[in-house]
Automatic annotation (TrEMBL):
PROSITE patterns: ABC_TM1, PROKAR_LIPOPROTEIN. This is ABC transporter permease. GO terms for cellular component: plasma membrane. It comes from Leucothrix pacifica. Belongs to the binding-protein-dependent transport system permease family. Residues 90-290 form the ABC transmembrane type-1 domain. The lineage of its organism: Bacteria, Pseudomonadati, Pseudomonadota, Gammaproteobacteria, Thiotrichales. Keywords: Cell membrane, Membrane, Transmembrane, Transmembrane helix, Transport. The chain crosses the membrane at residues 21-41, 92-117, 129-149, 161-182, 221-247, 267-290. InterPro entries: BP-dependent_transpt_permease, MetI-like, MetI-like_sf, OppC_N.
Protein backbone atom coordinates (compact mmCIF):
# COMPACT_ATOMS: atom_id res chain seq x y z
CA UNK A 1 0.00 0.00 0.00
CA UNK A 2 2.83 2.39 0.87
CA UNK A 3 4.57 1.53 -2.42
CA UNK A 4 1.38 2.36 -4.36
CA UNK A 5 1.05 5.65 -2.52
CA UNK A 6 4.67 6.59 -3.22
CA UNK A 7 4.04 5.83 -6.90
CA UNK A 8 0.85 7.90 -7.01
CA UNK A 9 0.27 11.12 -8.93
CA UNK A 10 -0.03 12.95 -5.61
CA UNK A 11 3.53 12.16 -4.52
CA UNK A 12 4.84 12.63 -8.07
CA UNK A 13 3.37 16.14 -8.25
CA UNK A 14 4.48 17.00 -4.70
CA UNK A 15 8.11 15.99 -5.32
CA UNK A 16 8.20 18.09 -8.49
CA UNK A 17 6.74 21.19 -6.90
CA UNK A 18 9.53 22.70 -4.76
CA UNK A 19 7.28 25.30 -3.12
CA UNK A 20 4.78 22.70 -1.92
CA UNK A 21 7.49 20.26 -0.82
CA UNK A 22 9.38 22.89 1.18
CA UNK A 23 6.11 24.12 2.71
CA UNK A 24 5.19 20.59 3.76
CA UNK A 25 8.62 20.03 5.33
CA UNK A 26 8.40 23.32 7.24
CA UNK A 27 4.90 22.46 8.49
CA UNK A 28 6.05 19.03 9.66
CA UNK A 29 9.16 20.42 11.36
CA UNK A 30 7.22 23.13 13.20
CA UNK A 31 4.52 20.64 14.20
CA UNK A 32 7.20 18.26 15.52
CA UNK A 33 8.85 21.10 17.45
CA UNK A 34 5.51 21.96 19.03
CA UNK A 35 4.70 18.33 19.83
CA UNK A 36 8.07 17.62 21.42
CA UNK A 37 8.56 21.06 23.00
CA UNK A 38 8.91 19.69 26.58
CA UNK A 39 11.91 17.62 25.41
CA UNK A 40 13.39 20.09 22.91
CA UNK A 41 13.08 23.34 24.85
CA UNK A 42 16.11 24.09 27.07
CA UNK A 43 13.82 25.29 29.87
CA UNK A 44 10.16 25.41 30.77
CA UNK A 45 9.42 29.13 30.20
CA UNK A 46 6.35 28.99 32.42
CA UNK A 47 7.98 27.35 35.42
CA UNK A 48 8.50 30.33 37.72
CA UNK A 49 11.14 28.49 39.74
CA UNK A 50 13.41 28.30 36.69
CA UNK A 51 13.15 31.98 35.76
CA UNK A 52 15.71 34.57 36.88
CA UNK A 53 14.63 38.18 36.46
CA UNK A 54 18.29 39.17 36.17
CA UNK A 55 18.29 37.46 32.74
CA UNK A 56 15.69 39.90 31.40
CA UNK A 57 16.31 41.62 28.05
CA UNK A 58 19.34 39.51 27.17
CA UNK A 59 20.10 39.93 23.42
CA UNK A 60 20.39 36.81 21.22
CA UNK A 61 23.72 35.01 21.58
CA UNK A 62 25.10 37.54 24.07
CA UNK A 63 26.09 36.63 27.62
CA UNK A 64 24.01 38.37 30.27
CA UNK A 65 26.11 40.92 32.12
CA UNK A 66 24.81 39.81 35.54
CA UNK A 67 24.42 36.04 35.30
CA UNK A 68 26.64 35.21 32.31
CA UNK A 69 23.88 33.05 30.74
CA UNK A 70 23.35 33.04 26.98
CA UNK A 71 20.11 32.50 25.09
CA UNK A 72 19.90 31.39 21.46
CA UNK A 73 17.09 33.85 20.59
CA UNK A 74 17.53 36.11 23.61
CA UNK A 75 15.23 36.50 26.60
CA UNK A 76 12.11 38.55 27.30
CA UNK A 77 11.39 41.05 30.05
CA UNK A 78 10.82 38.26 32.60
CA UNK A 79 14.12 36.54 31.83
CA UNK A 80 12.45 33.65 30.00
CA UNK A 81 14.30 31.89 27.19
CA UNK A 82 12.56 33.18 24.06
CA UNK A 83 13.38 30.03 22.08
CA UNK A 84 11.61 27.89 24.69
CA UNK A 85 8.69 30.32 24.83
CA UNK A 86 8.25 30.12 21.04
CA UNK A 87 8.23 26.30 21.12
CA UNK A 88 5.55 26.27 23.81
CA UNK A 89 3.66 29.06 22.03
CA UNK A 90 3.63 26.93 18.87
CA UNK A 91 1.85 24.19 20.82
CA UNK A 92 -1.01 26.52 21.74
CA UNK A 93 -1.27 28.13 18.28
CA UNK A 94 -1.31 24.81 16.42
CA UNK A 95 -3.68 23.17 18.89
CA UNK A 96 -6.17 26.03 18.62
CA UNK A 97 -5.76 26.11 14.84
CA UNK A 98 -6.32 22.39 14.30
CA UNK A 99 -9.18 22.17 16.80
CA UNK A 100 -10.89 25.21 15.25
CA UNK A 101 -10.60 23.78 11.73
CA UNK A 102 -11.96 20.40 12.85
CA UNK A 103 -14.95 22.15 14.43
CA UNK A 104 -15.53 24.36 11.38
CA UNK A 105 -15.12 21.38 9.05
CA UNK A 106 -17.54 19.18 11.00
CA UNK A 107 -20.20 21.88 11.19
CA UNK A 108 -19.72 23.14 7.64
CA UNK A 109 -19.66 19.71 5.97
CA UNK A 110 -22.75 18.57 7.89
CA UNK A 111 -24.75 21.68 7.05
CA UNK A 112 -23.51 21.67 3.44
CA UNK A 113 -24.58 18.06 2.92
CA UNK A 114 -28.01 18.75 4.42
CA UNK A 115 -28.51 21.91 2.38
CA UNK A 116 -27.40 20.36 -0.92
CA UNK A 117 -29.17 17.02 -0.52
CA UNK A 118 -32.46 18.05 1.06
CA UNK A 119 -32.86 21.41 -0.66
CA UNK A 120 -36.06 23.38 -0.10
CA UNK A 121 -36.46 25.36 3.11
CA UNK A 122 -33.52 23.57 4.75
CA UNK A 123 -31.21 24.82 2.01
CA UNK A 124 -32.72 28.31 2.15
CA UNK A 125 -32.32 28.68 5.93
CA UNK A 126 -28.74 27.37 6.05
CA UNK A 127 -27.55 29.42 3.09
CA UNK A 128 -29.20 32.62 4.30
CA UNK A 129 -27.43 32.22 7.65
CA UNK A 130 -24.18 31.65 5.75
CA UNK A 131 -24.80 34.73 3.57
CA UNK A 132 -25.44 36.89 6.63
CA UNK A 133 -22.27 35.67 8.35
CA UNK A 134 -20.21 36.30 5.20
CA UNK A 135 -21.12 40.00 5.31
CA UNK A 136 -18.98 40.36 8.44
CA UNK A 137 -15.21 39.77 8.64
CA UNK A 138 -14.41 36.45 10.30
CA UNK A 139 -12.28 38.09 12.99
CA UNK A 140 -15.21 40.29 14.07
CA UNK A 141 -17.50 37.27 14.23
CA UNK A 142 -14.89 35.45 16.30
CA UNK A 143 -14.56 38.43 18.67
CA UNK A 144 -18.33 38.61 19.05
CA UNK A 145 -18.65 34.90 19.85
CA UNK A 146 -15.67 35.09 22.20
CA UNK A 147 -17.17 38.05 24.07
CA UNK A 148 -20.62 36.44 24.37
CA UNK A 149 -19.15 33.14 25.58
CA UNK A 150 -16.98 34.82 28.19
CA UNK A 151 -19.97 36.85 29.34
CA UNK A 152 -21.98 33.67 29.90
CA UNK A 153 -19.22 31.91 31.84
CA UNK A 154 -18.80 32.64 35.57
CA UNK A 155 -15.71 34.78 36.34
CA UNK A 156 -13.89 31.97 38.16
CA UNK A 157 -14.14 29.69 35.08
CA UNK A 158 -13.06 32.15 32.40
CA UNK A 159 -9.32 31.50 32.67
CA UNK A 160 -9.73 27.71 32.59
CA UNK A 161 -12.13 27.87 29.63
CA UNK A 162 -10.22 30.51 27.65
CA UNK A 163 -8.70 28.07 25.12
CA UNK A 164 -12.02 26.25 24.65
CA UNK A 165 -13.86 29.53 24.08
CA UNK A 166 -11.14 30.58 21.63
CA UNK A 167 -11.57 27.36 19.63
CA UNK A 168 -15.36 27.75 19.56
CA UNK A 169 -15.18 31.38 18.45
CA UNK A 170 -12.77 30.71 15.57
CA UNK A 171 -14.46 27.45 14.53
CA UNK A 172 -17.94 29.00 14.43
CA UNK A 173 -16.62 31.89 12.33
CA UNK A 174 -15.01 29.71 9.62
CA UNK A 175 -17.66 27.07 8.78
CA UNK A 176 -19.26 28.96 5.90
CA UNK A 177 -16.61 28.17 3.27
CA UNK A 178 -16.93 24.45 3.99
CA UNK A 179 -20.73 24.55 3.84
CA UNK A 180 -20.94 26.45 0.54
CA UNK A 181 -18.40 24.22 -1.21
CA UNK A 182 -19.94 20.96 0.05
CA UNK A 183 -23.44 22.17 -0.86
CA UNK A 184 -22.42 22.89 -4.45
CA UNK A 185 -20.70 19.52 -4.86
CA UNK A 186 -23.64 17.71 -3.24
CA UNK A 187 -26.14 19.31 -5.63
CA UNK A 188 -24.08 18.02 -8.57
CA UNK A 189 -23.56 14.54 -7.11
CA UNK A 190 -27.19 13.89 -6.15
CA UNK A 191 -28.24 14.23 -9.79
CA UNK A 192 -26.04 11.31 -10.87
CA UNK A 193 -27.26 7.82 -11.61
CA UNK A 194 -25.55 6.07 -8.71
CA UNK A 195 -27.51 8.23 -6.25
CA UNK A 196 -30.76 7.39 -8.05
CA UNK A 197 -29.83 3.70 -7.89
CA UNK A 198 -29.10 4.01 -4.16
CA UNK A 199 -32.57 5.43 -3.59
CA UNK A 200 -34.19 2.69 -5.63
CA UNK A 201 -32.63 -0.09 -3.56
CA UNK A 202 -33.99 1.55 -0.41
CA UNK A 203 -30.92 3.15 1.19
CA UNK A 204 -31.74 5.87 3.71
CA UNK A 205 -30.91 9.51 3.07
CA UNK A 206 -28.33 9.46 5.87
CA UNK A 207 -26.67 6.39 4.37
CA UNK A 208 -26.54 7.97 0.92
CA UNK A 209 -25.04 11.20 2.24
CA UNK A 210 -22.46 9.49 4.46
CA UNK A 211 -21.39 6.59 2.25
CA UNK A 212 -21.84 7.88 -1.29
CA UNK A 213 -21.82 11.68 -1.43
CA UNK A 214 -19.35 12.50 1.36
CA UNK A 215 -16.40 10.56 -0.18
CA UNK A 216 -16.80 12.64 -3.34
CA UNK A 217 -16.38 15.94 -1.49
CA UNK A 218 -13.24 14.95 0.44
CA UNK A 219 -10.80 16.60 -1.98
CA UNK A 220 -12.24 20.13 -1.83
CA UNK A 221 -12.62 19.74 1.95
CA UNK A 222 -8.88 19.01 2.27
CA UNK A 223 -8.02 22.06 0.21
CA UNK A 224 -10.28 24.38 2.19
CA UNK A 225 -9.17 22.82 5.47
CA UNK A 226 -5.48 23.48 4.78
CA UNK A 227 -6.08 27.11 3.81
CA UNK A 228 -8.51 27.62 6.70
CA UNK A 229 -5.86 26.28 9.10
CA UNK A 230 -3.58 29.16 8.13
CA UNK A 231 -6.47 31.60 8.61
CA UNK A 232 -7.34 30.07 12.00
CA UNK A 233 -3.75 30.39 13.22
CA UNK A 234 -3.70 34.05 12.15
CA UNK A 235 -7.11 34.64 13.77
CA UNK A 236 -5.89 33.13 17.03
CA UNK A 237 -2.76 35.30 16.92
CA UNK A 238 -4.87 38.38 16.21
CA UNK A 239 -7.25 37.70 19.09
CA UNK A 240 -4.35 36.98 21.46
CA UNK A 241 -2.55 40.13 20.29
CA UNK A 242 -5.69 42.13 21.10
CA UNK A 243 -5.76 40.57 24.57
CA UNK A 244 -8.91 38.49 24.06
CA UNK A 245 -7.30 35.17 23.16
CA UNK A 246 -4.96 32.78 24.93
CA UNK A 247 -4.42 33.56 28.63
CA UNK A 248 -1.00 34.70 29.93
CA UNK A 249 -0.57 31.32 31.64
CA UNK A 250 -0.81 29.54 28.24
CA UNK A 251 0.64 32.11 25.82
CA UNK A 252 0.50 31.51 22.08
CA UNK A 253 2.58 33.15 19.38
CA UNK A 254 0.07 36.01 19.32
CA UNK A 255 0.52 36.58 23.05
CA UNK A 256 4.31 36.62 22.67
CA UNK A 257 3.99 39.16 19.85
CA UNK A 258 1.76 41.34 22.03
CA UNK A 259 4.32 41.25 24.83
CA UNK A 260 7.17 42.02 22.43
CA UNK A 261 5.32 44.96 20.92
CA UNK A 262 5.62 46.82 24.22
CA UNK A 263 9.42 46.78 23.95
CA UNK A 264 9.86 47.23 20.19
CA UNK A 265 10.72 50.92 20.37
CA UNK A 266 12.97 50.58 23.40
CA UNK A 267 15.55 48.51 21.53
CA UNK A 268 14.54 44.95 22.51
CA UNK A 269 13.55 44.05 18.93
CA UNK A 270 14.11 40.29 19.30
CA UNK A 271 11.19 39.86 21.71
CA UNK A 272 8.69 40.55 18.93
CA UNK A 273 10.81 39.68 15.88
CA UNK A 274 11.32 35.94 16.38
CA UNK A 275 7.71 35.08 17.39
CA UNK A 276 6.45 37.18 14.47
CA UNK A 277 8.75 35.43 11.98
CA UNK A 278 7.69 32.02 13.34
CA UNK A 279 4.01 32.93 12.90
CA UNK A 280 4.66 34.26 9.39
CA UNK A 281 6.52 31.12 8.28
CA UNK A 282 3.89 28.83 9.84
CA UNK A 283 0.89 30.56 8.24
CA UNK A 284 2.61 31.03 4.87
CA UNK A 285 3.64 27.37 4.70
CA UNK A 286 0.09 26.12 5.29
CA UNK A 287 -1.24 28.66 2.80
CA UNK A 288 1.19 27.64 0.05
CA UNK A 289 0.47 23.97 0.73
CA UNK A 290 -3.25 24.67 0.40
CA UNK A 291 -2.69 26.50 -2.90
CA UNK A 292 -0.82 23.49 -4.27
CA UNK A 293 -3.58 21.11 -3.16
CA UNK A 294 -6.13 23.31 -4.93
CA UNK A 295 -4.10 23.26 -8.16
CA UNK A 296 -3.52 19.51 -7.90
CA UNK A 297 -7.16 18.56 -7.43
CA UNK A 298 -8.46 21.14 -9.89
CA UNK A 299 -5.72 21.85 -12.46
CA UNK A 300 -8.10 23.98 -14.54
CA UNK A 301 -7.79 26.70 -11.87
CA UNK A 302 -3.98 26.84 -12.10
Amino acid sequence: MIARWLDSDFVYSLLRTPTALISLIICLVLAACALFAPWIAPTDPFDMSSIDLMNGFTPPGVANEFTGEQFFLGSDDQGRDLYSAILYGLRVSLFVGFASVILAMTLGVTLGLLAGYLGGWVDAVIMRIADIQMTFPSILVAMLIYGVARGILPPNARADMAITVLILSIGLSEWVSFARTVRGTTIVEKQKEYITASRLIGLSHLNIMARHILPNVINPILVIGTITLALAIIAEATLSFLGVGAPPTEPSLGTLIRVGQDFLFSGQWWIIFFPAVTLLVLALSFNLLGDWLRDFYNPRLS
